[in-house]
Amino acid sequence: MLVSGEEGMKKPDPRIFHLLADRYGLTLEGAAFIDDVPKNVEAARRLGVHAIHFTSPPELQREIDRFLA
Question: What 3-state class would DSSP assign to 31?
Fold first, then answer.
């Protein structure tokens, strides 16, 4: 977990996505990000993250299944 207030940065700042990837040994292209705020989703997508705009639990499940396939 990464808490933006503790890190002194917040979404949609690209640095927070890079920090998360570095801290946990992830690649941005191999990560999934879920948020209900469109500007945060778009920021993640610009970095190559598989970003999902949360609109409903069933739609989220479909997107997660697609990501994992």
Answer: coil
| Collapsed DSSP state (helix, strand, coil) of residue 59 | helix
The conformation of residue 25, written as its DSSP 8-state character, comes to T
State pLDDT tens for residues 56-65.
999 999 999 9
Rounded-to-integer distance, Cα 41 and Cα 54, Å = 9
Cβ(28)–Cβ(18) under 8 Å? yes
Q: Which of 9, 7, 12 is nearest to 47 (CA)?
A: 12
8-34 tens-digit pLDDT: 999 999 999 999 999 999 999 999 999
Whose CA is closest to 68, among 31, 14, 39? Answer: 31
